[in-house]
Amino acid sequence: MSKNWVQTWGQAHSAFSFFYYPSCPKTYRLVIKSAISGSSVRFELSNECARNKVYVGGLTVAKCDEKGNFTGECKAVTVKGEKSPCLEIGQVVMTDPVELDVKAGEYFCISAYVEKGALRSGNLINNADLITVKGDVTSTPCVENQRRIRDKVREIASVVLKMYFHKPIPLFQSVQLLNDDGARSIAVFGDSISQQGYWTNAFTDRIRKEFFGKYSVINKSIMGNRLMLDFHRRFICKGLFGISGLNRLQRDILDYPDVEYVIIALGTNDFLQYNTIAAPKSEKPTPQGVLEGFIKVSDILKAHGKKLVVFNVLNFGECMDSRPEKEAMVTEFNKLLVKNKHHFHAVYDQAGLCVNPDKPTCSRLDLLGKDKIHPNQEGGQLVADNVDLNWFK
Q: In degrees rounded to 5, what are phi and psi of residue 261?
């Protein structure tokens, strides 16, 4: 079987807004539990949403334990032969390959020492552990995370908005292993409901057990993301919600040949955001228009040999920004998905699974977080447990 580069971890970048990392000589160590095996590793660094250059003083990779402590040789990593690359504004670079024998289920880590430059591009995602330490500790076997003052902003935002914001992971875009077992990846292409990790992490556990070493699940979700429209310029957290699903499809999915299946879980914000602080009333969608967007995505993916699994839109009738008009559009859209399911590899009725039988436009409150829109751990587990794994055989 031929060798291919396969993602074992990755994320979709958006602008960090006030979650960003100000310029400070600091090491960023990403600890990954690999779902697949490989003989070499390479990874991408992104400065896509930057306002400044980023000067990287050193890069390393090593086998480690779950806490990021080295268990094997620490190896230096270069970019086009350079040990200290500089990322221009908007630039994405791929490192040179480094031999590293990783088995499915093992941990390894990549470390980057950023000498200068604020890090504004990344995602708030929790399927890998990020350790941050002042100074260059890229080759130090054992390090402990240093809490930053800006974490308080994130915690305050979590309380005010009644949703949990994970520690942001900057800079790293994808981590790939040279695999000869025929492994592939499943990409989750969603919004904050997927990005928060409650169903995606539970789904990842199921995939790892059912298809050990065969698939990695890559969460390419962005909070506030819409399928049809980019973030609106009037929104105070400019860029945080990212460019539209249609506009980022190439960057986050098509640029990676290892992706075999795509789970699209967008649409909530297309219907919910308009006429709020995030987007004007003029950006009101139509159920038919959003459906056509999904079909367009499916047609593009089919042309590239990829299969699309569509999640319908969870009912959000209990949340603050809900309105009867918006709820009616979600109901109509979900019906249209069923009528047009022949366009897709599969359609998953998560809305029907979580619906409140006494309030058909609402989800069960016991399955939702305090903001009454995002599934809690119980809701996420329920969604993950009912995904038909036969779709991925």
A: -120, 145
**What digits encode the pLDDT tens for the residues 79-133?**
999 999 999 999 999 999 999 999 999 999 999 999 999 999 999 999 999 999 9
For 368, list phi and psi in degrees, rounded to 5: -115, 160
- Region of 368 please: left (phi>0), alpha (psi -120 to 50) or beta: beta
Cβ–Cβ under 8 Å, residues 32 and 175: yes
Do the Cβ atoms of 387 and 210 come closer than 8 Å?
no
Coil, strand or helix at 192? helix
State the Cα–Cα distance between residues 265 and 91, nearest whole angstrom.
Answer: 28
Residue pair 36/8 in contact by the 8 Å Cβ criterion: yes
Angle formed by the axes of helices 377-385 and 200-210, to 10°? 40
Claim: this prediction has a pTM higher than 0.85: yes
Q: Token pair of 106, please? A: 């093992």
At residue 383, φ and ψ (nearest 5 deg) are -60, -45
Phi and psi, residue 111, nearest 5°:
-125, 135
Instruction: Let me know: does 113 contact 57? Beta carbons within 8 Å.
Output: yes
